[in-house]
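User: Teach me something about this protein's shape.
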Amino acid sequence: MKQSERPAVVLLSGGLDSATTAAIAREGGYALNAITFLYGQRHAIETAAAQRVAGAIGVAQHVFQHVDLRALGGSALTGDIDVPKSRSAAEMLSGVPVTYVPARNTIFLSLALAYAEIVGALDIFIGVNAVDFSGYPDCRPAFITAFEQLANLATKRGSEGARFSIHAPLIYMSKAEIIRRGIALGVDYSITHSCYDPSVEGLACGQCDSCILRRRGFDEAGIADPIRYATAK
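Assistant: First, the predicted structure itself:
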C-alpha cells in the first residue's frame, strides 16, 4: 500500500456492479480490503468471479466471510424456490421479487463495518443501484443513508468522533452508464458473473432478471457483452 492510500472496504460479489464499484474506489486512491460473502447462495460461481476481479483490480486484502442464510431460506437464491425467468420491465417494477434475500445488505454491510473497524477503514463501498435493479428495498438511497447513520452510532470509532462513510457510487446510474464507466476504468467484464441461475457448465441463463438487465445495459451502451449465455436473446 502506498503511503498516500487510505484503506477502504469494498463488498465484492464478482458481479458487474461490484467490479465497477471496486474500480471506482481504486481510482479514488483507496487501498481496497475486499470482502466476499458465502451465504448459501445457489452456486459458487460468483465466488470464483470475485477472486478473479480482486486479482484484476489489485486489492490489498481479500477475505471470504461465511454466513449461512440458506438455513433461513425465504429467497430463490438461498432456498428451493424457482428463479423467475423472462420477466418484462413492468413485472420487474411491480414489487419485490422472490430473488430478494431477506435483510441481505443489512447483514453484509454490518459485517463489512466490523471489518472496516478492524483494518482501520472509514470508507465502505457497495455496488447497489436504484435505477436498473429488481426492486430490492436494500438497494435504495434511503437505506444507504440510514445505514451510514447507524454505522456512526454503533461503533467504537464512531463513538470516538471518527466518521464512517458508506459509498454507493452507482446508485443513480443506469446499467449502461455503469458499463461505460467501468470500460473507461479498464474493467474486464469477461471475468464477472451476474446470473442468478447459471447452467451446470457455468453459462449465464440469459433469462433471469439479472441477465436481462445486464444484456440490456450492454445493448444500450453499444458494447458487446463478453460473457457466454446458455440461451440466445
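Now, about its shape. DSSP finds eight helices and five strands in the chain. The radius of gyration is 17 Å. If you'd like, I can walk through any region in more detail.
User: That's plenty for now, thanks!
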